[in-house]
Specification:
The complex is a heterodimer of chains A (494) and B (95).
Chain A: H1 9-17, H2 23-35, E1 43-46, H3 48-63, E2 74-78, H4 105-112, E3 116-121, H5 159-166, E4 172-176, H6 183-189, E5 192-195, E6 216-220, H7 223-233, E7 263-267, H8 277-292, E8 296-300, H9 308-323, H10 344-355, H11 358-371, H12 376-399, E9 404-408, H13 425-429, H14 436-441, E10 445-452, E11 458-464, H15 470-484
Parallel strand pairs in A: 2-3, 2-4, 7-8, 7-9
Antiparallel strand pairs in A: 1-3, 4-6, 5-6, 5-10, 9-11, 10-11
Helix pairs in contact in A: 2-3, 5-6, 7-15, 9-11, 9-12
Chain B: H1 5-14, H2 24-38, H3 73-77, E1 83-84, E2 87-88
Antiparallel strand pairs in B: 1-2
Classes of the chains: A alpha/beta (494), B mainly alpha (95).
Chain lengths: 494, 95
């Protein structure tokens, strides 16, 4: 078999089961692909020795007839997950040199299932960004190029994960999604990205950005792979007090391909001013595909949609300012060189000024401001009340029998690296306009590649599901994927 | 609502991030722009709405109030920039 790194999880699993390929061979194929892809800057800490050892163990396990669905599957891990003994710094200088003494629950679950660790993936610092340009490792690059050959952003914050999956450097990768950081990069790279319901996947050992919004999920080549990998990542975890006590179903077995009678909501508020024709057309195409598959299409209203973005940009920085207070140059990571007579306050201030990049500093300061005495009610409490109203919009749609909502994932296809350099921060935040609403409501969402724009770049649609109904959501996504038949791959230029 | 240079200096200090005086005007402008964007929230009628803390209607889990981990000072200190004699070391705190 050639090009083993191009396999899907399901394809590799079947080949492993039949004894046509070994995990060692799959892993070597990925390691060579990674070596040849430094231009993408997707893998930022490589772990080839660990990968080969884990692959050998997986092959023994497969021969013993004890394989789980992810056994022997080589994956990449976003740098935000703590992996014991491997640098884990959320793409921040402030965590330079940090090698955790413990393992995140998600990666523990993956290794227990027999998955193989290829290395850590690039991202925006502390998962704050939509372009993967705010990284201490430098920007990650989209394997898809613009019409004139310009280099494009893979999206963010899980940009390295998306680039690595799209370029076949790994079979799948982990991501995290606080305001769209799994779904937007998936849409920009023609891959599948699933953000589960809040509480479905443990946050333990995942470096925190905004605790009430953060959720980890799979980034894969197909919907079936997302189902397999979510099953391996999800668990009920006593180490995370917000982890839900729902049993983890066999998601793959729920991909029946039958969605007859399902009610799909089309929210009119997502038809924003200036929505490009291509995106509007794609949305219509996706709607028609689901209708032809037997779903009932219903126009719905989510009246507070417009306020999701400003509410998010109060709540997420507020939580970040609190979470990131722990980076003080005392317990881990970097401490600034101090001058004669500098005391502890100078140590904190210099360490944090040197260690955090501009966007992280900006969000910490905004968060500090909206939580400060005199402004708490005007900003933070008001945003939390608006958040309750946004969730109520979704609750009402669900009470009316809506099974899922279909919307564009992003307002555009991938744009050139550097395009946001001169933009003001609010312009970049607008990237998240379609994705943040479900984070505020805690709902699951999945981005599926459905078409290409005039320049041949991938475009995605997202389905938003009901809480803890990832099985049904994946089945709808599976039907959309099958109808769309998206098979385009980027030219191998790197 | 716009932020003055003095307020920007104060926020930076509260956040424990050193900012040069020369950078304060730009910082104040940026923060003001973001706050201006947030002010759209003032259009929403929030009368009688409870502020949301968590998305799941669940009570936080409880457990026995007992020690569940510990006894690993070496591991805890292994990533510290400065650790001495089993402690984190910091610059002088009290004059």
């Amino acid at each position: 078999m050639s090009d083993l790194n191009r396999l899907t999880i399901a394809g590799a699993r079947d080949a492993l089961t039949r004894g046509e390929v070994t995990s060692a061979e799959l892993t070597d194929a990925c390691l060579s692909a990674i070596e040849g892809a430094s231009a993408l800057n997707a893998f930022v800490h490589k772990t080839p020795d660990m990968a080969r050892e884990m692959a050998a163990a997986a092959d023994r396990r497969i021969r013993a007839g004890e394989a789980a669905p992810m056994t022997g599957i080589p994956v990449g891990i976003k740098d935000v997950f703590c992996v014991r003994g491997v640098p884990s710094q959320a793409a921040s200088r402030i965590l330079e040199g940090f090698t955790p003494e413990y393992e995140s629950t998600v990666t523990r679950n993956l290794w227990d299932a027999g998955a193989v660790m290829l290395g850590k993936l690039n991202m925006d610092e502390f998962a704050m960004g939509s372009t993967n340009e705010a990284s201490c490792y430098g920007r990650a690059v989209n394997p898809w190029k613009g019409a004139a050959g310009e280099e494009l952003t893979p999206g963010g914050s899980s940009g390295g994960s998306a680039a690595a999956v799209a370029a076949d450097l790994c079979l799948a990768a982990t991501g995290t999604d606080t305001g769209g950081s799994i779904r937007q990069p998936a849409a920009f790279t023609g891959t599948v990205g699933l953000r589960p319901t809040y509480g479905r996947v443990s946050r333990w050992g995942v470096i925190a950005y905004a605790s009430s919004l953060d959720q980890a999920g799979p980034m894969t080549k197909t919907v079936r792979d997302a189902a397999i990998m979510l099953g391996a990542m999800a668990s009920c975890d006593p180490q995370d007090s917000t982890s839900a006590d729902h049993p983890v179903p066999d998601y793959e077995s729920l991909l029946s391909g039958d969605i007859r009678g399902k009610k799909i909501g089309i929210p009119r508020e997502y038809r924003i001013d200036g929505l490009p024709d291509e995106i509007a057309a794609l949305w219509q195409i996706g709607t028609d595909m689901l209708r032809e598959a037997g779903a009932e299409i219903v126009d719905i209203s989510l009246p507070h949609t417009k306020y999701a973005l400003p509410a998010y940009y109060v709540i997420a920085p507020a939580e970040a300012s609190s979470n990131l207070a722990r980076y003080d140059g005392v317990r881990y990571g970097r401490r600034a060189r101090l001058g004669q007579g500098d005391g502890i306050v100078e140590m904190y201030e210099k360490t944090r000024a040197e260690g955090f990049g501009p966007e992280v500093q900006r969000r910490i300061m905004i968060g500090t401001y909206v939580l400060s005495a005199g402004f708490y009610d005007a900003y933070y409490n008001r945003a939390r009340k608006v958040r309750a109203l946004i969730k109520r919009d979704f609750d009402r749609a669900h009470a009316d029998g809506i099974d899922a909502i279909l919307a564009p994932t992003t307002p555009s296809s991938a744009f050139p690296l550097g395009a946001m350099d001169q933009a003001d921060p609010v312009q970049m935040y607008l990237q998240d306009v379609f994705t943040v609403t479900l984070n505020l409501a805690g709902l699951p969402g999945i981005s599926v590649p459905v078409g290409q724009d005039r320049s041949g770049l991938p475009l995605g649609l997202q389905l938003i599901g009901r809480p803890f109904e990832e099985g049904e959501l994946l089945n709808l996504a599976f039907v959309l994927e099958r109808a769309a038949g998206f098979v385009a791959k980027p030219d191998h230029w790197w | 609502m716009s932020i003055t240079e003095d307020e920007a200096r104060k926020v930076a200090h509260l956040a424990r991030i050193a900012v040069d005086d020369a950078q304060l005007p730009a910082l104040a402008r940026e923060l003001s722009g973001i706050l201006h964007f947030m002010e759209q929230l003032n259009e929403v009628d929030i009368e009688g709405v409870e502020p949301m803390t968590g998305v799941q209607p669940m009570r936080l889990k409880r457990r026995e109030d007992v020690v569940t981990a510990g006894g690993m000072p070496d591991k805890i200190l292994s990533n510290a920039p400065d650790a001495r004699e089993g402690f984190f070391a910091v610059p002088k705190v009290v004059e």
